[in-house]
Amino acid sequence: MEKFRAVLDLHLKHHSALGYGLVTLLTAGGERIFSTVVFQCPCSAAWNLPYGLVFLLVPALALFLLGYVLSARTWRLITGCGCRARASCGSGLRGSLVCAQLSAAAALAPLTWVAVALLGGAFYECAASGSAVLAQRLCLDRDHNCAAELPLVPCHEAKASDVQDLLKDLKAQSQVLGWILIAAVIIVLLIFTCVSRCLSPVSFLQLKFWKIYLEQEQQILKSKATEHATELAKENVKCFFEGSHPKECNTPSVKEWQQISSLYTFNQKDPYYSMLHKYVNRKEKTHSIRSTEGDTVIPVLGFVDSSSINSTPGL
Fold it and tell me: Which residues make beta-bridge pairs with 175?
């Protein structure tokens, strides 16, 4: 039991890093399966380039869109957006910052796919061998039939030995591009993390406390919501069978749910820890908390919107 609790505590403390690590491993494993089982280069001058690019880029695009779909913050942004005022859906700089953060998070899996595919080399070898532009450069000072035989290189069917040797060059180019991509992503991620931390309006320890508060808030919200929904369901079923009128049950209105479901913005004057925290501390009951003077989107506080009722442990 103690070991299980230790594993659970580890998951609670590092669930984001573990989640990104799992996504990376699954993506890399999927790419390996695709390249060895599914992918078969046609070795045709007309098809090599589009076939290789489709396997390299289309799964990456699918993973990118899937990253948006699986993000709780995406659904916070767009759910009910068409029925609300335009300002509540995010606009201008604030909306751009949120979209940029969503795109950066969603880009992890596709970049992993492209990097692993380039390190493997199969997709790039097929695509590059069908490129007329690369053929002119690769075939300098080689057999006069080099350009015609280059598409056959991935299938080891080129007759001229010096043309077949170009497969090593293509693989080397692919792997160099893969490592350049990995290095570029790490550098950009490091710079973004450092800058966002430097611009953080709160300290390191307060950020830790903030995350603990959100975990507890979501657990309690889930518990209370389940309890309230159970009581409401029991009362309605009871009244249905007894033919009586239900007792009054105080359930938050649509507007109140919309208020606490909107994207979080930080205000230096009133630094609340969540939209629910901000809502219960509003000065006037009729006052909207979605957008007030001084509200800003802080990149380092993006985890506030990423938390959801269903993602908390034990719920």
Answer: none
